[in-house]
Amino acid sequence: MGSGVWLFQHHDRTGKKQRGTWLACLQTILLRAMNRILIAMLVMHVTYPGDRENTSGVLASEPLKLQSRSGVSDSLETQIRMRVAAIPGAAVGVAYANRSNGQSLYINADTSFHAASTMKVPVMIEIFRRVDAGQAALDQGILLVNQFGSIVDGSPYSLDPAEDSDSTMYHQIGKRVALRELLERMIVRSSNLATNAVIALAGGEQVTATMRNLGARAIQVRRGVEDGKAYERGLNNTTTARDLAIIMASVEEGNAASRASCAAMREILLRQEFNDEIPAGVPKGVKVAHKTGQITATLHDAAIIYPENGGSYVLVVLTGGISDEKVARSLIADISKVVWLYDAGLQGARSRADVNGESRRD
Question: Which own/partner contact pairs does 325-331 have at CB distance under 8 Å and 24+ positions apart?
């Protein structure tokens, strides 16, 4: 091929310039394309019966069969790890637990991530415990302000409405807002302004101490949102997938606070308005009580999933190092889908019709 047209130059591992012909270039492109297709086929050949096409665009007529052993099957872990491996540089923590049948799976579950807005669930728990103890009331009014003190030196900072997912809360600055409404907005709309008002009442150290009492050993709730000085010093709210799974399970099982308060918290989590991650991986109509979290290159979801035939399981997926939020969102939804099918396969009472239908993500 000495007479071929030179298309490109590159340096090999020894640093020497190498040339490639049109044929070599074509071979490289084809090999890369085949590799990407193979990964997609291996990872995404999972569908609900009746789906014409899965989320990767690869046609699939039958769901991948997952065999249950004494614990979670190797195939479930393999599928998740392969899906994660398809995204270079991604850091992912996964915790799945179904306490009714003893199934659980933890992948990088003790790796610490910036908690983002998932820390709002521990804050909510602390407030409901205060209500149970008679130290707070859901109807009490909290003066809403947009000035907070940094945990570093007490210097003031404020929030930008344009950077808040619930800008309508800023219309109530200067007014007294019921604690009940602040909790609702903090979870359902992930309002940062409501969060800072509530955490000022709860106290980060006390929230963390309460999480320790629930069995979450690593999570740290240090501060409110957008404390720039604290961020610069690495004083962030952090969590692990395992700890969030423990926390969500405590809400589901009625251990986080009184049973009445846990029921109220589940209802708030069920009203979550951002449903493009874990809920997108389960069939339409399935209830999911959950809380998302997002900052730059970080996207999380922590959920309690309620299959229609009864029971529940907890799934937490934490991601970091993924700059494209669409890629991270798709990853979380795909993991949720695979776990749903696995959990469904373990439930003898769950009929095939229970997973027959389109996922929420079309």
Answer: 325/294, 325/299, 327/87, 328/90, 328/299, 329/276, 329/277, 329/280, 329/299, 330/55, 331/83, 331/84, 331/87, 331/90, 331/92
How far apart, in whole angstroms, are the C-alpha atoms of residue 326 and residue 124? Answer: 28
Q: Considering the entire predicted model, what is its pTM?
A: 0.79
pLDDT tens for 332-358 read 999 999 999 999 887 753 444 444 445
- How far apart are alpha carbons 273 and 181 in whole angstroms? 15
What single-letter DSSP state applies at residue 171? G
Calpha distance 189→268 (Å, rounded): 11
What the chain holds in terms of domains, given with CATH numbers, is 23-111+240-362 (3.40.710.10), 118-234 (3.40.710.10)
End-to-end CA, the chain: 48
In angstroms, the CA 352 to CA 137 distance is: 46
Token pair recorded at residue 309: 């035939």
10 Å CB burial of residue 5 (0-12, 13-18, 19+) is: exposed
Residue pair 79/67 in contact by the 8 Å Cβ criterion: no
